[in-house]
Design goal:
By secondary structure, this protein is of the alpha/beta class. The chain has 14 helices and 13 strands. The protein has helices at 14-22, 34-47, 58-69, 83-86, 91-96, 113-119, 149-161, 173-180, 184-188, 214-226, 235-245, 251-266, 292-302, 324-338, and strands spanning 2-3, 51-55, 75-79, 99-103, 130-136, 166-169, 193-197, 208-212, 272-273, 280-284, 304-305, 307-308, 313-317. The chain has a 7-stranded mixed sheet with strand order 2-8-7-6-5-3-4, with helices on both faces. Helix 7 (149-161) links the parallel strand 5 and strand 6. It binds ligand TLP.
Length: 339
């Protein structure tokens, strides 16, 4: 089976298993796990922030950030197709008591400064006040598009001018940095916190990082505890996380595979493919007279897995566990599935 459902499906290789087996550990709630401490130090260094916090999942990283930045009852500005809005169980409302106001970030999923200003609500006797702007890069739902740092700067500056802090869901931050050929720290520069996942394209079995100022991370550490994310001898999972940081340099390979996949599938009758910018390929199957589920069932019968991303849209994701040969085989199988 060639599994292109997500870049989360990678399994840890020998080096990661070895790192897990040999990690120095301690109780991380006491701040005594040397492997976690090293991971937090390196992660902060890589994104150019003062500090970072190891969290079990990307969802927890985003939710901890929202809770740490805001007061209950405030509003959060989120993009209408963003992961925090669509796929985190309404966590901003459930876990932080936030009222969410959605902004339509258009084709690339990034709100303009005008939209931020229009969406802002000033606190008064009747109105809750805006407590957060949340952005996403790469934008998953829009097809893994890598948002130009200038666009992030503009939205973040507009929020800051209104005294609103900015969080970036950078689950695939390093994919964005690779595609844009800028250091990740450049993308992170204008925001107050960033979450990035170790468990996606970087291949770790588990874990994400939340990064920001020392003061923010100190408070986020308390929020993580509140959300049940205070871990103990977490070095056994942080060890593979450190290995994952070494996989940043190979993300370009995934992007190249996505490009090859997209080109080949676009040439198939009935399929229309958005040119990918990173490792996510969105395929519109309407022209084949199928909906996404029927198309995916046919693909699965031939040995290829993808995800439904809309009525007639399917997502294929390239990752560490598929090579060029797998991509070529996948294309053949999709052709057979449609025949
Ligand atoms: N995304 C998953 C699914 O939930 C859709 C995937 O397969 O792409 N932010 C973004 C932009 C994400 O894409 C994801 C996961 C998360 C946050 C949450 O990360 P986890 O799964 O670690 O909680």
């Amino acid at each position: 089976m060639i599994d292109l459902r997500s870049d989360t499906v990678t399994t840890p290789g020998e080096a990661m298993r070895e790192a897990a087996a040999t990690a120095d550990v301690g109780d991380d709630v006491y701040g005594e796990d040397p492997t976690v401490n090293e991971l937090e130090r390196r992660a902060a260094e890589m994104v150019g922030t003062e500090a970072a916090l190891y969290v079990p999942t990307g969802t927890m990283g985003n939710q901890v950030a929202a809770r740490t930045h805001t007061d209950r009852g405030q509003e959060a500005l989120v993009e209408r197709e963003s992961h925090v809005y669509k796929w985190e169980l309404g966590g901003f409302a459930q876990l932080s008591g936030l009222q969410v106001r959605t902004l339509d970030g258009g084709e690339r999923g990034v709100p303009t400064p005008e939209q931020v200003r229009e969406g802002y609500v000033e606190e008064d006797l009747h109105r809750p006040g805006t407590g957060l702007l949340s952005l996403e890069n790469t934008h998953n739902s829009k097809g893994g598009v890598a948002i130009d740092p200038a666009k992030i700067d503009a939205a973040a500056d507009a929020a800051h001018d209104l005294g609103v802090p900015v969080h970036l869901d950078g689950a695939r931050l390093f994919n964005a940095a690779t595609a844009l050929d800028v250091p990740a720290s450049r993308i992170v520069e204008p925001v107050d916190s960033v979450m990035f996942c170790l468990s996606k394209g970087l291949g770790a079995p588990v874990g994400s990082m939340l990064a920001g100022s020392e003061d923010f991370i100190e408070r986020a550490r308390r929020t993580r505890k509140l959300f049940g994310g205070g871990m103990r001898q977490a070095g056994v999972i942080a060890g593979p996380g450190l290995e994952a940081l070494d996989n940043v340099d190979r993300l370009a390979e995934d992007h190249e595979h996505a490009r090859l996949l997209a080109e080949a599938l676009d040439a198939v009758d009935g399929l229309s493919v958005q040119p990918p910018e990173t490792n996510i390929v969105l395929v519109d199957v309407a022209g084949a007279g199928l909906d996404a589920e029927a198309f995916l069932d046919a693909c699965e019968a031939e040995g290829v897995l993808g995800s439904a991303f809309g009525e007639t849209t399917v997502r294929f994701c390239t990752h560490l566990d598929v090579d060029r040969g797998d991509i070529e085989t996948a294309v053949e199988r999709v052709r057979t599935a449609l025949a």
